[in-house]
Amino acid sequence: MMQAGVLETILPGIHRLVAPNPSALTGPGTNTYLLGSKAITILDPGPDIPAHIDAIVAAVATLGAEVERIVTTHTHSDHSPGAATLQDYFPGVPVIGARIVDDGYQDQSFAPTQGLAHDDCFAIEGSSLRAIYTPGHVANHFCFLHEATGAVFTGDHIMQGSTVVIIPPAGDMADYVDSLHLLLDYPMQYLAPGHGSLIASPHAEVEALVAHRRGREAKIVAAFKEVVKGDLDALVAVAYRDVDVSIHPIAKLSLWAHLLKLEKESSARQHEGQWELV
Question: In the beta sheet, which residues pair with residue 190?
């Protein structure tokens, strides 16, 4: 069972700490990964919670290691804020990640010392960590392939046990589905999500997620048989009637993202918040 603050070695050279921030959206909490044995890459330092920062610092000491770099998958508040505080403990260590314009959900404390681009590679004890640009959940999202083990660190691109919320405009459903397809081109052996446990059937998981999104899109299109023209509130009640109504405020965000994808594909249009099929 995953437990906050407990250092676990989940694969050779890959260690995990769970932050104490469990919730409906974060599952057991945010996973912070420590990669390497003596020269550590901290991947997703997580929220700036003192107990979590202390656990990271203690884990580095337990491993008898030095921190080589801090890397982030994206800048949501449960993934990147710890980077700023960790720089006080590990001065001079580069912080690597991509920033975007704040949409009300971004970590404004994040100040990377180095940017990030698709296919950037970082040496990790005889192997490499490869950045894979995966926009969708948010426009600055990256996954990372640990080439020694075939583990892909998925941040919030893929979560174990639940689907990812896509929040426009920084989130984009069309980009998200394309980014899922992109992962199938890589030699994945495991998915190491930002929330939840290691997934040992990566290709099947990705294909199931693509199928799920296609199925939800089909339900949205079918909803227009009942709501020929309507707003998000009217459509979510029909397209997500299989989901508890308490989840509808969150579902409405993904509905919006699906509709924007359909609009981009010239299959739907809107006028003053009223949506209809083309």
Answer: 151
Residue 275 has pLDDT above 70, yes or no: yes
User: Using CB atoms within 10 A of its CB, is residue 168 exposed (0-12), middle (13-18) or buried (19+)?
Assistant: middle
**Contact of 232 with 256, CB cutoff 8 Å:** yes
SS (H, E, C) 191-247: EEECCCCCECCHHHHHHHHHHHHHHHHHHHHHHCCCCCCECHHHHHHHHCCCCCHHH
The torsion angle over the Cα atoms of residues 104, 106, 109 and 113, rounded to 10 degrees, is: -140
pLDDT attached to residue 40: 97
Q: What span, in angstroms and rounded, lies between the C-alpha atoms of 165 and 254?
A: 6
Write down the pLDDT at residue 1.
Answer: 63
Mean pLDDT score across all residues of the chain: 95
